[in-house]
Amino acid sequence: MVSFATPWLTVAGLACSSPEVAVRVSIPGADAVEAPVPNLPLVFLPYDRDSIIAALEAKAPTPRPNAQTLDSLFQKFRMPFEAYAAAEGRAGKLRDSLEGIKRHLDSLPRNAPEYKTEYLRFSAGFDSLKALEKVRDQRQQELDKARSKLGPRIDSLRTAMRQWESTTYHGYDSLTTQLAKSRGRTPIADTTGADGRARVRLVGKPWWIYARSWDAQDPNQEWYWNVPVTGDSLVLDGRNGRRRPRY
Amino acid sequence: MRLRLRSLLLPLPLLLALEVHAQTPSSVPADLLLEARSKGSTTAPVTVYEMSDFQCPYCRRQAVETFPELERRYIATGKVRWVFINFPLTQIHANAAAAAEFAMCSAKAGKFWPIHDLLFKYQDKWAPLKDPAPFLLSLADSAGMGRDAVMPCLTTGEMRAVVRSDAEGAARSGAGSTPTFYIEGGLLEGAAPVADFVGILDSIYNAKVTRKQ
After folding, report:
1. CB 3.0–4.6 Å: which of A140, B117, B163, B170 could bond B87 by disulfide?
2. Is residue A81 part of a domain?
3. pTM of the model
């Protein structure tokens, strides 16, 4: 191993750099409030993957399997899922609030006048939490029931859909490898940080950013982005992404 | 300037070997093309790959102020072989790719280094031009090769793929800015002064020569 004897030096501004592209990802959470998406894989592609997929679909020997039944099964599953998610959300919020009260109680002397008031608050909240958890457990049972009833049918339709996709998109990898090579650039992968942000240095153009994220509001859907990179900052959110079924 | 030693996705020499062989037009042997933009003995113990952009002012500083001294101390004495790799930053330098392609067509005509020097010397003249082609062609005259020596190559665009694969190899080796130097497994970023190169090159040269003895 060769080592450089010169100490590490940093002198700013002695190099030319391509501008960094700053990306922020933000989507509605389970409570419909927009929140940053941490640890989300992002892929920068030197080609438009949607147009390649569309071209491959146009050449497919058979039409895409009808998704109507699958969509309706997804819809049936969504209702118990949403009921469970809402019940768990309410219980979680109250649990967090009770933990705050408990920490406060622990910091107070038992004979402090405030202790009794806080204790009564905690006690009432604890009873409410028990009631909410009971509802949550009921919703979970209903969700499990729906899963075992609808799951096998969903899985079988999904398998047919995946088989079609596997045949239709067979040439995707070799096509995109050739495209990347002809453009002299290979895909670049990155991941958002805890704040839902990432910074990437891209050489040349054009680039597209491709990302997929779970939809916190629907277990059978996902957020999908395939957005051309223009400028030095980009927000991936509900305006330029689309929800699509997770077949 | 930033100096870093790190594991690269693939070592630059290997990337270049793969890329240049894959992209070189059949009329020009890949080794010859690499040789045409190299300086120094092929048996020199140390090889430096300079990833550079003809339109980058810091690359100009490197080429005009630092490189002549390095050439005298290390290349002429057989200690170092220097290889030029195109890394045009097209997002910020509109004419960088055209200049790199012109330099590579000059390399095919055996005039890479005179054109390299002229491109950096007159960087402020051609860099702001909307169409740099006429000015670049005038440099062919200045280098004594005449326009006819480069026109067929420029017309067919045969060096475009070589420049692109150079840039891709540079990016994949870990370079994110210009100039960046790949020196025996380490990356040196930025236009470093001669003294910094001296420390690095002497250290590597001595380590390699001592190991051989």
Report:
1. B170
2. yes
3. 0.61
